[in-house]
Design brief:
Length: 403
């Protein structure tokens, strides 16, 4: 009898973390590596947030807090939802966790039973299907390819819903594609969900503030208020305020769900770091000019990367509406061979050959449920991005067509 849980046989390690770790190991060995695999801003956390955290230490805010967040932070989160999204939540409808991932995990652990289905559009963030599996549920994947702008249609959603469907996960703008659902597209999905009152909505809004051009962010319960009683709206400070390591995420939903999630958290991590909570409070209530400044930098980098990749032989890269990722197709490179004679059979082999040949680390599309693609995070300096694009262009140009 195996000592380890049988569930683990169905759960994969995070491919994004694996590629990032591999790139670090190669760099430690002296290789010239440009890693574009990690999904985190390369900026420092804003000064006023760091100073608030230091002051919290000096003030003695170093003890246990309420399991799912200090009252001041819950109120700030409620104020944020009201101010920015037109969503009216009371503090008892707010939960704070150790990163956005814990919010999602708590919700699934608190609600899933064997046989429950969770609809997940693909490409998806790598952790969604595995968290569903850990909770005893069944992921139901809907593919949304490059031709549909990496967005599912109302018809696809309608056909995927069954009596066993418990949740649908909507991530806009998306990791890994940066694709976003505007109000019209979101309205099409919410109209479907209104017809199926047993289906709950898990809105992952972590990239809310990183949107470009004339794209306007919306969240499902904002577009359709009648869904608010069966929606968990998740967000956090990681991406918008360059606070990935501080590990603070938050969510809002019906009181019964929030209490159940707190029960799960009470038996796992208990409260998030007290110092990080005060830092997050400063982020939500302090100056917001950092967001505008960083968004402008990311948009410039997006344009640099999209233009550069579309000049690479065999790569097709659409323009994302948000986040800090691109998800280009390499369909035209499948079957080509490297100068050493290795055939590019899929996006995994492309990513590994690219890393070995050029030192550029990307994440293969198989990890996100849609191939043949790869993901680049452009949360890196302009110099690093330009260097990486030049290396990718050289690598693609060296591939030979099928005989």
């Amino acid at each position: 009898m195996s000592f380890l849980s049988q569930t683990l046989a169905r759960v994969k390690p995070s491919s994004t973390i694996a590629m990032t770790n591999l790139a670090r190991e190669m760099a430690a060995e002296g290789r010239d590596i440009v890693s574009l695999s990690a999904g985190e801003p390369d900026f420092d956390t804003p000064l006023h947030i760091r100073e608030t955290a230091k002051a919290a230490i000096d003030a003695g805010h170093t003890r246990y807090t309420a399991v799912d967040g200090i009252p001041e932070l819950k109120q700030a989160v409620a104020d944020k939802f009201r101010r920015e999204n037109g969503l009216d939540y009371a503090p008892q409808q707010i939960t704070v966790g150790t990163g956005g991932k814990q919010i999602l995990y708590n919700a699934l652990m608190a609600t899933l039973n064997p046989g429950d289905e969770v609809i997940i559009p693909a490409p998806y963030w790598v952790s969604y299907p595995d968290m569903v599996t850990l909770g005893g549920g069944t992921p139901v994947i809907i593919a949304a390819g490059i031709d549909s702008g990496y967005r599912i249609t109302p018809e696809q959603l309608e056909s995927a819903i069954t009596p066993r469907t418990k949740w649908v996960i909507l991530n806009s703008p998306s990791n890994p594609t940066g694709a976003g659902y505007g109000e019209t597209e979101m309205r099409g999905l919410t109209d479907v969900l209104l017809r199926h009152p047993h289906v709950w909505v898990l809105a992952d809004d972590i990239y809310e503030h990183l949107v470009y051009d004339d794209f306007r962010f919306v969240t499902p319960a904002q577009v359709e208020p009648r869904l608010i009683e069966r929606t968990l709206t998740m967000n956090g400070v990681s991406k918008a305020y360059a606070m990935t390591g501080w590990r603070i995420g938050y969510g809002a939903g019906p009181v019964e769900l929030i209490r159940a999630m707190a029960n799960v958290q009470s038996q796992s991590t208990s409260n998030p770091c007290s110092i990080s909570q005060y830092a997050a409070l400063a982020a939500l209530t302090g100056p917001q000019d950092y967001i505008t400044e960083s968004r402008a930098v990311f948009q410039r980098r997006r344009d640099l990367v999209v233009a550069g990749l579309n000049q690479c032989e065999g790569i097709d890269c659409p323009v994302p509406q948000g986040a800090f990722y691109v998800y280009p197709s390499i369909a035209r490179l499948i079957g080509r061979t490297t100068p050493e004679g290795t055939t590019i059979t899929d996006d995994r082999s492309f990513a590994m050959e690219l890393l070995n040949a050029t030192g550029v680390a990307v994440v293969f599309g198989e990890a996100f449920g849609l191939s043949p693609h790869f993901r680049i995070s452009y949360a890196a300096s302009d110099a690093q991005l330009s260097d990486a694009i030049a290396r990718i262009r050289g690598f693609c140009g060296s591939l030979r067509p099928e005989p």
